[in-house]
Design goal:
10 strands; alpha/beta; binds magnesium ion; binds adenosine-5'-diphosphate
Length: about 220
């Protein structure tokens, strides 16, 4: 069953002669238990698509539903709650808090979302799987790009979201790490029954995807 559905999404930026049509009649859906890859070059609209899918931006036209609930019909507060409880984001800038250690990033999440997060044992296991457990007392600026990226992935998974939306989650990783992260995310989708959507230009992730879409100049096509 589709957990996230986008219908006829259109998005424009700018005005008059500077107006750009960034997403064009875009239809998309993802089922639980699937890892879906959206491949596209830089500027094709990947980040715009992903942030609209997660309710961080609104489209000019079209609808987005999560478990059949129309996201654009919710109040801002209801939408925040839905996002907090159902969606895990790995954003392009990692959005880690600079003055908190790796472990404190999770404690911050606990203050915002008090229930339903993974246990501390499961967190230890996740950080070990991502090979960043030893770095738990380090601050983001003491980590490499790849380590920050893996920390951002762990934080997105911490809340046990039904849907994971990841923007270029492997851009800073070497090929071995890409395989590890790809396998971890595929296992989470298949065994954890989550819907995982990755937008990227990193074709190294193709082996792990159940479905592949291509986004070119705002036009999304399957296969
Ligand atoms: P990608 O993630 O594939 O690189 P983006 O979704 O970031 O693509 O951007 C798609 C297009 O939309 C680009 O031409 C970009 O310049 C434009 N764009 C994105 N965000 C904005 C914005 N907030 N204001 C104006 N133009 C934007
Ligand atoms: Mg982008």
């Amino acid at each position: 069953m589709a957990v996230l559905t986008l219908k006829q999404i259109n998005k424009y930026f700018g005005k008059d002669s500077a107006r750009v049509h960034v997403l064009k009649d875009l239809d998309f859906s993802v089922d639980k238990g699937k890892l879906v890859l959206v491949l596209g070059p830089s500027g094709s609209g990947k980040s715009t698509f992903l942030t609209i899918a997660g309710g961080l931006q609104t489209p000019d036209k079209g609808s987005i539903s999560i478990n059949g609930q129309d996201m654009l019909k919710l109040t801002p507060k209801q939408r925040d709650n839905l996002r907090l409880n159902k969606i895990g984001f790995v954003l392009q800038n990692y959005s880690l808090v600079p003055y908190l250690t790796a472990m404190e990033q999770f404690q911050l999440v606990d203050r915002i979302k008090k229930e339903g997060n993974i246990s501390s044992d499961a967190l230890t296991q996740l950080l070990q799987q991502l090979d960043i457990y030893e770095l738990k007392n380090k601050y983001p600026d003491q980590l490499s790009g790849g380590q920050r990226q893996r920390l951002a992935i762990a934080r997105a998974l911490y809340t046990q979201p039904e849907v994971v939306l990841a923007d270029e989650p492997t851009a800073a990783l070497d090929s071995e790490r890409v395989k590890e992260v790809g396998k971890l995310l595929a296992d989470l989708a298949h065994q954890g029954n989550k819907a995982i959507v990755i937008v990227t230009h990193d074709s190294r992730l193709q082996d792990f995807a159940d479905d592949i879409y291509h986004l070119n100049d705002g036009v999304l096509e399957k296969g």
